[in-house]
Amino acid sequence: MDVKGKVVLITGAGQGMGAAEAVAFVAGGAKVVLADVLDDKVQLLARDLGSNATAVHLDVRSTQEWEGAVEAATNRFGRVDVLINNAGILRFTPVDECSDEEWELVTSINLSGAFKGIRAVAPAMKNAGGGSIINVSSTSGLKAFSSVPAYVTSKFGIRGLTKAAALDLAPYNIRVNSIHPGNIQTPMIDGLYQSFTHVPMSRAGHPSEISNLALFLASDASSFSTGAEFVADGGETAGLPALF
Fold it and tell me: Cα torsion for 103, 116, 154, 195, to the nearest 10°?
């Protein structure tokens, strides 16, 4: 899973899985652009990671800011080889109580943000002769959960977006795949579960376990994989464990 010298743009890099991915890629010899609206967090992490990391402000809902992030990456490191669409938010409201504002906020960040990222990096990846785009979906993109209709819709949408983009970009040697994490130890699930009896492995995943999957998809080790779904959920979507 060699990523040495690759230029990687990661959204939502200020905390959680995005931050863990940034650490893993720099450790693997990649050059990383940390993008987030959490400016203080990404700037601090970029300083900690050294000269192979830089921080940029990016609200993934903004086409203009996406263009700026890609320009910053190419100005600093010469190209973009990998995009990880990691930024996302979660809101809890039953479908009949979900407001227009909440629906549009969640879907604009989780789904439209990923679309705008793909569109923004495609020209740079074409110029570089190829690339890998990794869209972070969820087990909520494989099965529904109650009281999170906007989140579920956005994560199912990422599956379709991934496949559509994979078909359009395959002639340019740009691969597009989706990762579907289960419960991962990040701020997003703080206080959500008292235990993980619904997971056959009886635990939450570690952010590093998603980073390793991202490293695989970013590297040439996954060179024949595109338009595919990669699940890391401790067996959650396989079915209910016997003692649930």
Answer: -110
pLDDT in tens, 180-204: 999 999 888 887 887 899 999 999 9
- Active site residue: 151, 156, 196, 230, which one? 151
Separation between Cα atoms, residue 91 and residue 147, nearest integer Å:
8
CA separation for the pair 13, 117 (Å, rounded): 14
| Known active-site residue 172 | no
Contact in structure between 179 and 130 (CB atoms under 8 Å): no
**Residue 244: pLDDT above 60?**
no
User: Distances in Å between the alpha carbon of 104 and those of 107, 140, 148, 182?
Assistant: 5, 18, 13, 24
Secondary structure class of 135 (helix, strand, coil)? strand
- The percent of residues in the chain predicted with pLDDT above 70, rounded, is 99
Distances (CA, A) of 51 to 11, 32, 83, 176: 19, 9, 19, 28
Q: Within 10 A of 31 (CB to CB), how many other CB atoms are there?
A: 24
> Could you give the C-alpha distances from 227 to 9, 44, 81, 192, 223, in angstroms and in order?
20, 34, 17, 31, 12
Q: How far apart are CA 117 and CA 1, in angstroms?
A: 24
CA–CA separation, 101 vs 107, rounded Å? 10
26-66 pLDDT, tens digit per residue, is 999 999 999 999 999 999 999 999 999 999 999 999 999 99
| Residue 43 to residue 36: CA distance in whole angstroms | 10
Q: What is the DSSP pairing of strand 31-36 with strand 7-11?
A: parallel
pTM of the model: 0.96
